[in-house]
Amino acid sequence: MIVVIGGGPAGRFAAARLGQAGREVTLVEREAIGGQCLNSGCMQVCALNDAARTMERVGDFAAAGVLEGVLHLEFPALLREMGEVQSKIRTVLDRETRAAGVEVRYGATARVDGRRIFIDDEEVEAEAVVIATGSAPAVPALPGTDLPGVYTSRTLRTMPALPERLVIAGGGVSAAEFAYIFSRLGSQVTLLARREFLGDLDPRLRRLALKELSGVEVREHTPLTAIIGSDRVEGAAFGGAAPGECQADAVLLAVGLVPQTSMVIGVEKGPRGEIVVDDRMQTSVPDVYAAGDAAGPPYLTPLARLQGVVAAENILGREMNYAPKAVPQALALANDLAFCDDGDDGIALSLPAPAGPGSFWSVPKGDTGLGTVLVDPETGALRGIWAASPGAGITATYLAEAMRQNKTVFDLEDLIDVHPLAEGVHGLFAQAARAIRERKAETEDPKTNPGER
Q1: What's the CATH superfamily of 2-136+258-315?
Q2: FAD/NAD(P)-binding domain: from which residue to which, for each copy (predicted)?
Q3: Nearest CA-CA partner of 101 in 33, 18, 10, 5
Q4: Do the beta carbons of residue 335 and residue 361 sit within 8 Å?
Q5: What is the pTM of this model?
Q6: pLDDT tens across 298-330, in order?
Q7: Which fold has domain 329-442?
């Protein structure tokens, strides 16, 4: 028997691959299948962002005189219906997993002590184990974090009502996404970022993100220092160059994730509790593997899935190494802000995104997004793409694959797109190819280089 601990993307993909290969697999899931991605991460953001974008679009229509009256959001109903959809998705995932030949044990707890495996404190014999226990939202050690009215992505669904004044602590993608969501749903949002807000994001996309977060008070280099209140949240205190306090009805902590590995001992771990693995997802103990968030950042669902598959393939005796290249990413605001960067040298070409599905009514605000490509000046190889549009994540997905396949703008310059598209990347390939040809022609033409004979 092979034991997989955790039913999130990494664990589920590992278990399914092993089950499909005819192996006896037991998947132990303490809570709900789907992991953080489905239950408190990606799908939760999708659900709430859809509502936020709808409210923003309604505002655009009202400003244009197309709609009259005030649309009222029933926030408790939004959370309730979101939960119903998540439940349906869990049913599908459970059915798919069992169909792969995997036994799923819900409500059970598992722990690992070196090579020894325990399920509900009963030791079991296992030829291999995959630890895919995921991560949890980080909660800083600050006064007031235990007050009613303090939430993380995992407890957000317990909000009784839409906060009138919400403080969000964090400066990364998750904080930005929640700031957009709650500001468009109707909350007054203050975001406290310990460092530069979205400091790791490409400057072009960062400028767009700040534009799309209009109405949010973003305070950079301003760490949350305490949550104020007696019986519940009443405000937040912050530090930085101008320390102070602000009122709040709720505080949302979006300061990162930490691996959930307290149930694992006897294997090598890193400083934050992440399980140390090699490129086969093998831990320091033979036949014990780890995948997904339990193995540390970057905490991305597609990489967790890949790691689960790598672990399973190596358990099956099929050598496979984890070596991701050109990984696309995105954050969801009014647009999807997507990117894939595989280098920083080259020629950058950029255009505003055209109006199209989901962005036509953004023209009056000048917020249709952008498209940027980075190409090698000699070969035309695609080195990076940055796109902002309602469907930019799809664009980044396929262009990242083009980067992995070493495609050049010469390969893509005859691309025929589906029209209309609301993204500004596809038109840049021919422009880039033409620019490289002209550059080479100027270099090779003796008339433009009189010193060459």
Answers
A1: FAD/NAD(P)-binding domain (3.50.50.60)
A2: 2-308
A3: 18
A4: no
A5: 0.95
A6: 999 999 999 999 999 999 999 999 999 999 999
A7: Enolase-like; domain 1 (3.30.390)
